[in-house]
Write a structure and sequence with these properties.
single chain, 141 residues, Nucleotidyltransferase, domain 5, globular
Length: 141
């Protein structure tokens, strides 16, 4: 991971794919919206990568709290392999246990409406995935 470059986080969902961009040098992570999970998703992600000078991608890996594989994990791993075929930058799988639940609870505590929580949960989950990743990677000088 290069500190001066940006990282794109992806929260893969069956309907929507949440995105967030992080700046390792500052530790700042910003939500980047979501895209529909359809046949154009990879092309849309490649466009985000190109437009934002992304050097690395982190993809949330959905596991049960126990660490066991979840039903969503297989779909996510299939998506991971598709991304790896299409990308030349590193792609890292990151444990995303409970990020969606935490995202929902946090937004609820800030009195976001149910509609707004539904609209923002994917990108907020991606933001949490990337914040976790940036806290756990070795500090590079």
């Amino acid at each position: 991971m290069t500190k001066n470059k940006k990282i794109l986080a992806i929260d893969f969902g069956s309907k929507y794919i949440g995105l967030a961009v992080g700046f390792p040098s500052s530790g700042i992570v910003l939500p980047k919206g979501h895209i529909q999970n359809n046949l154009h998703a990879i092309a849309a992600i490649k466009e985000v990568i190109q437009q934002n000078d992304i050097a690395e991608v982190v993809l949330g890996r959905p596991l049960y709290p126990s660490g066991e594989s979840s039903p969503q994990e297989k779909q996510t791993l299939d998506f991971y392999h598709l991304l790896k075929k299409e990308m030349t930058i590193p792609i890292t799988l990151v444990d995303e246990r409970l990020t969606t639940k935490i995202a929902q609870q946090t937004m609820k505590s800030f009195d976001f409406s149910a509609k707004k929580r539904k609209e923002l949960k994917d990108e907020f989950s991606a933001q949490l995935i990337l914040e976790y990743y940036l806290k756990t990677i070795p500090n590079e000088q």
